[in-house]
């Protein structure tokens, strides 16, 4: 067996120790991928069959890939296999993206498919990162303390995201209250349904807050809207909230400050990462992605594609429509405003 390695060294002029290290490290992943592929074939899961086939091929050719990149005198079949794998991977990726975009265009129409695609993409790092966010848990607890589940029986969460607030409420207890949770993104809703699976008093629906909401007047005791208003193109949503909220009903808004500083929000989140220890390895690669996506949001706000609300601006809008401000306070590491407003009774 060792003659094989020395032959590799002589023939292709590579570091034999590095080649041996890659070779032996690939043995366990190879057999793991092999058995996963067999299991996927039995179940008929096409996505997993493709994934484990590609993984198996990559692991198998990993030692030879090292030779291809750093060695000499490699035969023609090295070129064929290497570039063949690259072409297959690129083709698969392009086809997957194209199918995703076509599905979004078909489902959502030509006008706003880019927004659907963006928020579906945003959902992946966001839903992973928020699970360990101490500032968000503190915010959810603030909202929970405002509610009275003996009186607040029907709640609308406008922009529920991945259902983290609902999950927090379930764990704390909501009595006999019912929650209508809506969001713009299919991917967000899919994650939310998975997170809150088996809890019948929460209903998830896909709705666009830029359009008239399909609820009758004075439907809800409470409306919660967290970090959503900036992405709504029209301020008519405030009037819709007023219309579907009962008299003396509560409107809870959480919205980023115009001078929002993501770094200040990120600093306390590091504590949550430290508690994850080795599990945090899965989280760290997502951080650059969400930073990049947040930069896109920031760019769109500067171009007036998204809105920016000051505290006084929100107060003026709510007062004009017929709300009475009860509470204003800073949350999420002092980077967002929380506003509690009550719908005034009409005499």
Question: Mind explaining what this structure looks like?
Answer:
With 347 residues, this protein is an alpha/beta fold. The chain has two domains: 2-108, no CATH class; 119-343, Vaccinia Virus protein VP39 (Rossmann fold, 3-Layer(aba) Sandwich). It contains 13 helices and seven strands. The termini are far apart. The mean pLDDT is 82. It holds the Pfam family Methyltransf_31. Keywords: Membrane, Transmembrane, Transmembrane helix.
- Share of helical residues: 55-70%
Alpha carbon gyration radius: 26 Å
How many domains? The number is 2
Number of helices: 13
Largest sheet properties: 7 strands, mixed
Order of helices and strands: HHHHHHHEHEHEEHEHHHEE
CATH architecture of the largest domain: 3-Layer(aba) Sandwich
Structural class, from helix and strand content?
alpha/beta
Average pLDDT number: 82
Strand content: 5-15%
Oligomerization category of the chains in this entry? single chain
Overall strand count: 7
**First and last CA, distance:** 92 Å
Using the coordinates shown, work out and report the CATH topology of the largest domain. Answer: Rossmann fold
State the fourth-level CATH superfamily of the largest domain.
Answer: Vaccinia Virus protein VP39
Unreliable segments of 5+ consecutive residues: none
Strand order of the largest sheet: 3-2-1-4-5-7-6
The CATH class assignment of the largest domain is Alpha Beta
The shape, in one word, is: elongated
Task: Summarize, please.
By secondary structure, the protein is α/β, with parallel strands linked by helices.
């Amino acid at each position: 067996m060792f003659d094989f390695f020395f032959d590799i060294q002589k023939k292709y002029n590579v570091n034999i120790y590095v080649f041996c290290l890659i070779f032996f490290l690939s043995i366990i992943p190879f057999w793991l991928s092999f058995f996963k592929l067999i299991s996927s074939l039995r179940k008929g899961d096409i996505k997993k069959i493709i994934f484990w086939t590609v993984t198996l091929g990559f692991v198998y050719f990993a030692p030879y890939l090292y030779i291809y990149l750093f060695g000499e005198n490699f035969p023609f079949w090295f070129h064929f296999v290497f570039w063949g794998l690259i072409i297959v991977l690129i083709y698969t990726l392009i086809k997957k993206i194209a199918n995703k975009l076509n599905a979004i265009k078909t489902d959502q129409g030509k006008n706003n498919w880019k927004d659907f695609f963006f928020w579906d993409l945003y959902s992946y790092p966001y839903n992973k990162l928020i699970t360990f966010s101490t500032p968000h848990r503190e915010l959810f607890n603030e909202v929970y303390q405002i509610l009275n589940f003996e009186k607040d029986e029907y709640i609308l969460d406008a922009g529920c995201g991945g259902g983290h607030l609902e999950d927090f409420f379930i764990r704390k207890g909501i009595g006999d209250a019912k929650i209508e949770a809506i969001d713009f993104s299919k991917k967000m809703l899919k994650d939310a349904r998975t997170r809150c699976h088996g809890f019948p008093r929460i209903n998830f629906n896909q709705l666009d807050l830029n359009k008239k909401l399909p609820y009758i007047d004075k439907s809800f005791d409470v409306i919660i809207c967290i970090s959503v208003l900036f992405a709504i193109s029209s301020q008519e949503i405030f009037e819709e909230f007023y219309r579907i909220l009962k008299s003396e009903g509560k409107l809870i808004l959480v919205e980023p400050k115009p001078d929002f500083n993501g770094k200040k929000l990120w600093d306390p989140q590091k504590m949550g990462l430290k508690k994850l220890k080795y599990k945090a390895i899965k989280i760290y690669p997502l951080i650059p992605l969400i930073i990049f996506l947040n930069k896109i949001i920031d760019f769109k706000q500067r171009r007036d594609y998204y809105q920016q609300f000051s505290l006084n601006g929100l107060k003026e809008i709510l007062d004009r429509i017929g709300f009475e401000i009860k509470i204003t306070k800073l949350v999420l590491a002092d980077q967002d405003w929380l506003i509690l407003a009550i719908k005034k009774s009409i005499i």
